[in-house]
């Protein structure tokens, strides 16, 4: 078993060069550590190919722009760096974490325009995000925290600061023996899990929350397209909490989660049904094609 994420063999790409894993460090006065000025991507490499490689690199740039900074490497630079990092670590099936942040520099207040923007890529082996829930169905708590209004956060960005309430919600869920937590949004509609989008099935049709105040995940968009290609009706809409009782199936989507069935949310139970199993299988085939 490997040690902590700060104590491993291997290489991490930082600011244009590969460095030893244990030496990939930043100063304690790094701006992102104090003010969350950081964006990231979660990606998976299957059989030597990163799924949606370019889309992830483009979104990293988009997220940085949302936080008012520019990544000093182009999309093509990032794609090449990811491939270089995978090769340096001898991995063909791996999780890929690309990220960028405001580093330490002359500014140490809220404003940090003069600080350098740092960029890094790390890769490692990572199995099922939810363990055996991938086949048995995850058990979800219902979080007390809600996704904020888009007037208060750049919700389209995959930004580190937006995950603070997700971390707290997932910790509370795990303390109750759950795999994750489902969150409502600021209006009381069903939103997402702490790091994955959510789908429901009723009478052969699929319902998924409208991503108007949370991240419209790349995996989510992929699965919506797959369902429609199969001729299945997909409703992207606001979902009220009381509707949970009427849904028959449920699953989560995300780069880490892939397609994971859900068996329970709070007091509501769902079957791991055929449509859930089919879309999980189809997604697995797609990413490994």
TrEMBL record:
Classification via SUPFAM superfamilies: D-aminoacid aminotransferase-like PLP-dependent enzymes (SSF56752)
GO MF term set: L-isoleucine-2-oxoglutarate transaminase activity; L-leucine-2-oxoglutarate transaminase activity; L-valine-2-oxoglutarate transaminase activity
Record field: catalytic activity: L-valine + 2-oxoglutarate = 3-methyl-2-oxobutanoate + L-glutamate; L-leucine + 2-oxoglutarate = 4-methyl-2-oxopentanoate + L-glutamate; L-isoleucine + 2-oxoglutarate = (S)-3-methyl-2-oxopentanoate + L-glutamate
Pfam families noted in UniProt: Aminotran_4
Enzyme class per UniProt: transferase
The protein's Enzyme Commission number: 2.6.1.42
UniProt-listed GO biological process terms: isoleucine biosynthetic process; L-leucine biosynthetic process; L-valine biosynthetic process
Keyword flag Transferase: yes
Function: Acts on leucine, isoleucine and valine.
Name of the featured protein: Branched-chain-amino-acid aminotransferase
Gene that encodes the chain: ilvE
């Amino acid at each position: 078993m490997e040690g902590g994420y700060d104590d491993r063999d291997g290489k991490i790409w930082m600011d244009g060069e590969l460095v030893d894993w244990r030496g990939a460090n930043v100063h304690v006065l790094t701006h992102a550590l104090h003010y969350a000025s950081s964006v990231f991507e979660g990606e998976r490499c299957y059989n030597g190919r990163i799924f949606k490689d370019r889309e992830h690199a483009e979104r990293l740039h988009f997220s940085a722009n949302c936080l008012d900074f520019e990544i000093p490497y182009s999309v093509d630079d990032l794609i090449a760096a990811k491939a270089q990092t995978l090769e340096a670590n001898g991995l063909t099936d791996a999780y890929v974490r690309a990220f960028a942040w405001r580093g330490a520099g002359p500014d140490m207040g809220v404003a940090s325009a003069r600080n350098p923007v740092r960029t890094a890529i790390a890769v490692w082996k990572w199995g099922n995000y939810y363990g055996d829930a991938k086949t048995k169905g995850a058990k979800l708590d219902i979080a007390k925290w809600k996704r904020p209004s888009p007037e208060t956060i750049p919700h389209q960005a995959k930004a580190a600061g937006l995950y603070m309430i997700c971390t707290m919600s997932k910790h509370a869920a795990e303390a109750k023996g759950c795999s994750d937590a489902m969150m409502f949004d600021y209006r009381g509609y069903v939103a997402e899990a702490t790091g994955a989008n959510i789908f429901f099935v009723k009478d052969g049709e699929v319902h998924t929350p409208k991503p108007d105040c949370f991240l419209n995940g790349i995996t989510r968009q992929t699965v919506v397209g797959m369902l429609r290609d199969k001729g299945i009706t997909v409703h992207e809409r606001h979902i009220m909490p009381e509707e949970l009782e009427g849904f028959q199936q449920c699953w989560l989507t995300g780069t880490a989660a892939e397609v994971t069935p859900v068996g329970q949310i709070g007091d509501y139970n769902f079957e791991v049904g055929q449509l859930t199993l089919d879309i999980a299988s189809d997604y697995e085939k797609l990413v490994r094609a």
